[in-house]
Amino acid sequence: MSNLPKIAWIGLGIMGSPMAENLLKAGYSVTGFTLEQDKLDRLAAAGGGAAGSIAEAVKDADVIITMVPASPQVEAISYGENGILENAKSGALIIDMSSITPQTSIDLAKNAAEKGIRVIDAPVSGGEAGAIEAVLSIMVGGEQADFDEALPVLQSLGKTIVLCGPHGSGQTVKAANQLIVAVNIQACAEAVVFLEKSGVNLQAALDVLNGGLAGSTVLTRKKDNFLNRDFKPGFRIDLHHKDMGIVTDAARNVGAALPVGAVVAQLVASLRAQGDGGLDHSALLRAVERLSGAQI
């Protein structure tokens, strides 16, 4: 029998499915629950267990990992008669890897503590490719002892894993991450349109730019999206719109000015309003093309 902790995984989307599979590859027992039957079938085919409810998934788990879209979903799966807190065993550790508001994480940790359940917030950066390759950056908020206990699990999912402070700190750092990523994608998209309208070989231009100070992980990961106009979602505009709302609201609360971030947040919102919310966030290129006169 394995001495590794039993893991429950709630939320098997674009990121959650490959992450849960990486834990299976590392030798962990993983029982999952999600609303889509095909995702449960995928987990079962990889060697995991498919639960019929949250309660069934978490009842015997030592570690419960959640990866759902936003704060309302975290609250929905955590609270109530059928939620995690009412059905997990005392002493269990919740690792919430969703991207949500810092206050939601703080509240969850407080409410869980009343049930004898521990929580860390551990949102990630790296997108679908990072999830598949298990090279995510994981920013964590919570107690040192809980972080230390979670670290072996997290090391099966990512490469850069840092405790950033108390509960909610991981979400604050993730908000900053999403700000940087959105502004970076917007700058890349504007450069792509500028280069193409100038008649420059785009492939060559992006290659040389990525070798200098303008290079970035964003450009490395999204270069082919720009070149091929391939906007199959790795991280959807809808989710980045949610995250830009989190960072602009949090920045206002602490008195931090985000002049460029506020503009990009509006560009993300406009792209979503034009029906592109289900596309990858590299589709910010489409917004720049529309502003530049293209008919899309």
From TrEMBL:
It comes from the Bacteria. Residues 168-287 form the 3-hydroxyisobutyrate dehydrogenase-like NAD-binding domain. The keyword Lyase does not apply. The keyword Oxidoreductase applies. Its EC number is 1.1.1.60. It holds the Pfam family NAD_binding_2. GO terms for molecular function: 2-hydroxy-3-oxopropionate reductase activity. Keywords: NAD, Oxidoreductase. Residues 6-165 form the 6-phosphogluconate dehydrogenase NADP-binding domain. InterPro entries: 6-PGluconate_DH-like_C_sf, 6PGD_dom2, 6PGDH_NADP-bd, HIBADH-like_NADP-bd, HIBADH-related, NAD(P)-bd_dom_sf, Tartro_sem_red. Belongs to the HIBADH-related family. PANTHER family: 3-HYDROXYISOBUTYRATE DEHYDROGENASE-LIKE 1, MITOCHONDRIAL-RELATED. This is 2-hydroxy-3-oxopropionate reductase. It comes from Streptomyces caledonius.
